[in-house]
Amino acid sequence: GTSDPSDPGSWVVPTTGVLQTVFRPEDAAEGEDGPAVIKKWFLERRRPLKIARFVCVYHMYTQLETEVQGMDMIRALAHDLRLKLCHVKALIKATYECFGTHAAGMAPQVGYTLLPTLETIDKFTVPALIENEKHRNVFLGVSLPLVCFNAAAVTGRYDLVLSSPIGANLLQRVRMLETWDQERLRSRPELTDVSQFGDMHCIRNFIMDGVAGRYSKDLLLPKAGHVQLDYVCPVRAWTNSTTPTPEFVMAQLVHLMQTSRLGGTWCVRALRSVAHHLVITPWTFRTLLRAIPGRLQSDTPTVTEHADERAGGDEDEEEPPLVPEDFTGREELFVMLWNFVTDQGLCCSRYVLYDRTLFTRQEMDNIRFRLGKLNVFDAYFSCDDTSHVPRSPVTTQCPGCVGCTACLGNNRFQCDLTSHEGFLLARFLTQLGVAEDGENFARCRYGGEGVVTIMAGTDFDYIVPANWTANGAKPPRVGILSLTYVSEKPEYILLKDRHRLATLFLGWQQEFDLALLEQMAKSLRPKAAKPRASVKETKTGARLGSRKTVQPR
Measured in Å, how far apart are the chain's first and last C-alpha atoms? Predict the structure, then answer.
């Protein structure tokens, strides 16, 4: 285009060519929290409907004759307006009175279509919108993800149908919070980017219509389709208040979860509503996890979000369970509250996440996949062969390895240096190997596409070059590094250095607390076990005692 000489700064639109524009939502102001971001976004994009105007709208709705006409009007109201709870109740009541036999499938659809128009979704009054119990179950099954959504505790998995008003609105909320969280992370350069691709995005494992891809805020999503994603908040929620929630409060919460007649499914969902008020210590987290069974079943005959496609069908159609078959209670609870635990290192160690009395192997796999390998890496016990459950059993040999039976050990790590997460994990392990004495890398192999080493195809260990670690140097961004991390002696284990490197490469945000680590180990030590070696303090940092018991003198 060209500028108009009579009006400097203007632009004369050309008559040929292609014009492309990208819409980006406005960033939230600094200092706001998640609920404030959502409220601001809601108020700016919807116009209020005053009582005088609603009377006209209500009269128009009652004059419609067919179900198609009624739903077209309801969708138009839900697109731009901001309603009150009394407006929604009145329209649902008019649906029963005006549409006769069609109201059976239409009333729940009217309810969950208009639900995103409410500024405040009261979880206690929403079920009262529909009087018929069967219709209420259909309505709750579809609207439950939005009813239980908490903008202050957004970490979790989202399975959304974009053709549903609930799914489309939830995706808009998640994307708005993702933009805000990304700006928060950029404003704090001391924090490490532990996102999936190193782009500071909180959304990971993004799947669109069954095809995995990389999320971008510039991504234009269609009006129909199926989206799955995991959201991981990058900033620890307890940083604003480091005082743990009183133990008597947590004890009452555990008691309510264990004795509730509603069942564990609803307990996990209800706990999300108050999760942002909790600051949880690792041992309290263990107690809370034990209050929920390892696998939950549906407690009510409600339906999933896909029900909106069948809501207008036969009333006697069998309703699928609200909770998917692969829903695991403790897994969901861990992912939801992971961001509210005071010590990430202990939370993701053999004391909580990698305790096989708390989680099954499959649950550990799922948690690591959903939160990311960096977020759940057990840095304190990097050399422990009972931690770090691998993503899947090793069935192939490592690059350049001959008969590598040691790959089955849980302190065996394979780092793809071409990926962001694998590169940071490799930097942590190589820097730790330099900081700690002794030979720390066993059966070390380095290979892959584009890598040529003199030890390829032999049974000799690959020696990590000094230019990978010296003076802030980095490994190359090519190949796969596989190694088993070991410590020759207990006194070679440096907890302070492991914490320092975890803060630098794994995104840890808590201060090093040796007393807390000792307290956790002492509280979980079996009473009949022999005493362990004491934790020693040296000039180079705190050292962890051996896991092997010693005979008392």
Answer: 89
pLDDT at residue 68 is higher than 60 = yes
The secondary element (H helix, E strand) that includes residue 160 is strand 156-161
| Number of other residues whose CB lies within 10 A of the CB of residue 322 | 22
pLDDT tens by residue, 400-429: 433 333 334 578 898 999 999 999 999 999
Distances (CA, A) of 298 to 3, 104, 302, 303: 64, 24, 9, 10
Residue whose C-alpha is closest to residue 425's, from 313, 520, 501, 525: 501
Report yes or no on whether pTM surpasses 0.90. Answer: no
**How many H-runs (helices) and E-runs (strands) does the chain carry?**
16, 13
Nearest to residue 411, comparing CAs of 438, 365, 457, 380?
A: 380
Residues 6+ apart with CB under 8 A from 438: 487, 488, 489, 492
Task: Output the CA–CA distances (angstroms, integers) from residue 161 to 298, 305, 326, 532, 544, in the order listed.
Answer: 21, 7, 18, 53, 49
pLDDT tens per residue across span 76-99: 999 999 999 899 989 988 988 888
Structure-block tokens of residue 468: 């990978």
Please report, as a single letter, which amino acid is at residue 355. Answer: D
Distance CA 277, CA 280 (A): 10
Residues 6+ apart with CB under 8 A from 76: none
User: At 450, phi and psi to the nearest 5?
Assistant: 85, 5
Cα 29-149-276 angle, rounded to 5 deg: 65
CB atoms within 10 A of CB 47: 10
Q: Which is more confidently placed, 232 or 6?
A: 232
Structure tokens at 312: 């207008």
Gap between the Cα atoms of 382 and 486, Å rounded: 8
Which of 381, 376, 351 lies closest to 364, judged by CA?
376
**C-alpha dihedral sign at 76, 78, 84, 85:** positive
Pairing of strands 2-4, 441-447: unpaired
211-213: strand order across its sheet: 156-161, 226-231, 203-208, 211-213
